[in-house]
Amino acid sequence: MDNQQEVREFLTSRRAKITPEQAGLPSGTRRRVPGLRRSEVAALADRSVEYYAKLERGNLAGASPAVLESVARALQLDDAERAHLLHLAQAADGSDALARPRRRRPARQWTPHPSLQWTLDAITAGPAFVRNGRMDILGTNALARAFYSDVYANPHNQANLARFTFLDPASRRFYPDWGLAADVTVAILRTEAGRNPHDKELHDLVGELSTRSDDFRTRWGAHNVRHHGTGTKNFHHEAVGDITLAYEGLEMAPGRRRLPDRPSGSRPQPRCSPPSVCAATP
C-alpha cells in the first residue's frame, strides 16, 4: 500500500473528525472544511504550519517520537489510532522490520500446532478460535466450528470473516447489528494494514472487497482503526436464535489471536439445540 497516501488520508480524516469546540478553539463563521484547519492542528501540536502540512502530505519519514506524540495529542487520537500512526511512521522510514517487504514464499495452509489445538479443545464453555490480522480463521474448537457454521457453509468465504461479512448475504442474519460488525471488521483490517503494510494477501483481500462491496469501500475510506480486546456481541444463529456472547481477545503471536467467547449475563439466553452450540449458553 502507498505509505504517503495512507498517511495523508489518515491524518486528513482524523482532522476532519474534531470540531473546534472539542479542541477548545473558537468555531468562527467562515469554515470551508469539516473539523479543524491545518493551521489549528499545527498550533495545537506546537509545530509550524509548513511542517505540519508536510506531515499531512504523507511525509512522515524522520518524524521523531516527540513530533508524532504532539500530532497524536492535537488530533486527540485514541490508543489504536496512536499505534496506527506509529506503524505508518515506521513504514515511512523503514525502522520497523515488519514494515519492510519480505521475500514471497509459496502459499501453504497454516494449521495450528497440536498444543494450540489442545488448548482450543480444552475450552468447552464457549466458542474459541484463532485468526490472523486478515480475519482468516486458522483454528477452532468444536463449538466455534458449529457456531460459525454459516462461514464454513459457503466455500467462497474461504473461512475468512471479512469475506463473510461483506460478500455473503447470510452475514446480515448472523449479525443483527450488521453495520457495527462491518465497522469493526474494516477497522481490524485497516489496523493490520498499518502494522503490516507489505502483506500481499491483505492487499489482495482489500482489493477484492473494495471491488465487490460498496459497503466495504465506503468504510475503508474512513480510515478508522481499533484494538479488538473485550466486549459483547449479538448474534442470530440459525439453530439457536438470538444470543449475546462476551468475548476476550488474546494476542498469541504476531498476527494471530485466540478469541474465546462466553455467554453474556446482560440478557437472558434462549433454550437451544444442538448441544454443541447450546454449550455456550447457561
Task: Please give a structural write-up.
By secondary structure, this protein is an alpha+beta fold. 46% of the residues lie in helices and 12% in strands. It has 14 helices and seven strands. The chain has a four-stranded antiparallel sheet. Strand 3 and strand 4 form a beta hairpin. The radius of gyration is 21 Å and the shape is elongated.
By helix and strand content, what is the structural category? alpha+beta
Fraction of residues in helix: 40-55%
Q: Low-confidence spans: pLDDT under 50, at least 5 residues?
A: 96-104, 255-260, 265-282
Give me the strand/helix succession.
HHHHHHEEHHHHHHHEEEEEH
Percent of residues in beta strands?
Answer: 5-15%
Concise structural overview:
The chain contains 14 helices and 7 strands.
Key words describing this protein structure:
282 residues; alpha+beta; four-stranded antiparallel sheet; 12% strand; elongated; disordered C terminus
Fold blueprint:
Layout: H1 3-17, H2 38-44, H3 49-56, H4 65-74, H5 79-93, H6 114-122, E1 129-132, E2 137-140, H7 142-147, H8 149-153, H9 161-167, H10 170-174, H11 178-195, H12 200-212, H13 214-220, E3 230-237, E4 241-248, E5 250-253, E6 256-258, E7 261-263, H14 275-278
Antiparallel strand pairs: 1-2, 1-6, 3-4, 4-7, 5-6
